[in-house]
Amino acid sequence: MSTSLVTGGAGFIGSHVADHLLRHGHKVIVLDDLSGGFEDNVPSGATFVRGSILDTELVDRLFSRYNFAYVYHLAAYAAEGLSHFIKRFNYNNNLIGSVNLINASVNYGVRCFVFTSSIAVYGAGQSPMSEDMIPQPEDSYGIAKLAVERELQVTHEMFGLDYVIFRPHNVYGERQNIGDRYRNVVGIFMNQLMKGEPMTIFGDGEQQRAFTHISDVAPVIAESVNIPAAHNQVFNVGADVPHTVNHLAQIVADAMNKKCNVVHLDPRNEVKIAFSDHSRAETVFGVRRKEPLQDGIQTMAAWVKDHGSRESSIFEDIEIPKNLPPSWASVARVRV
């Protein structure tokens, strides 16, 4: 039996990956600080350890005790727009924490390190995004993700650590933290509707994204270590069909049986059109059926109705208040 570490396994994507690993006979250790996840997301059968990837002593103890064959690194603070205003927090959590895991993986002989990056590494003007494009990230989150990608590549060359890198995009579904006001627009919309509030959209709502149900990404991530052709490669993974945020709002309202009541806020600094090409993933992992947007939203809506709304969390310690969107500034605390 292989033992796998899943960081962020109490979160959204991580808990689904842990589910699939357990089904395939892995012993799973989940490491999560619960800053964005919930202990009840951790699947039955996994061993849960509450802690941070920034705690190097804890990381070393876990690697020494469990002798991990595989590391699935999904822990991250994935708020792209907010990352401009929390640079130190972003780089500590999304870069330094990742390096701690990479160091331990080399030192303790991990066979393969699976990393969830992001299409944020591409930047603007490159849709459909393909893996052979030159990354040009436009926010601190994308820069951190790209740095970890590069670190894995040079670590493989220097020390022989195999890796698989995934760039998922706009993933939604059951177990998502719908109380997070800074990311995951589907969850934000559903939480607002559950609380009787209008759905808020930055700008004109004509931004285009290919919204991806969790069932389209978690199985591929989990299975990747068993596919030699996937090792030391980068893959886009997600839905193929882009939709505007305005269209998404209508689909979400219909699924929640609510009126489509939208308020448009001032635009923020973000990529206007972002979706990716998945030819490389289909070549290596095979062509798989993908969940249509309406069906996936219906499935998530049923889960949300069953679990109820969540109270939106407030981000502590904004580092740069300048140009912070007013809707965020009203609910954030600035470090002086």
How does this structure look, described?
- This protein is α/β, with parallel strands linked by helices and 336 residues long.
- It has helices spanning 12-23, 56-66, 80-83, 87-107, 140-159, 185-194, 218-223, 245-255, 279-285, 293-307, 326-329; strands at 3-7, 27-32, 47-50, 70-73, 112-116, 162-168, 171-172, 199-202, 208-209, 212-213, 233-237, 243-244, 262-265, 273-274.
- The protein has 11 helices and 14 strands.
- Helix 2 runs parallel beside helix 4, helix 4 packs parallel to helix 5 and helix 6 packs across helix 10.
- 48% of the residues are buried.
Q: How many whole angstroms does the radius of gyration measure?
A: 19 Å
Strand content: 15-25%
Rounded mean pLDDT is: 92
> How many strands, which pairing sense, and closed or not: the largest β-sheet?
7 strands, parallel
SSE string = EHEEHEHHEHEEHEEEHEEHEEHHH
Question: How many H/I helical runs?
Answer: 11
Spans where pLDDT lies below 50 across 5 or more residues: none
Number of strands: 14
* Strand ordering within the main sheet: 3-2-1-4-5-6-11
How far from one another are the termini? 50 Å
Rough shape? globular
Helix-strand category: alpha/beta
User: What fraction, in percent, of the residue positions are helical?
Assistant: 25-40%
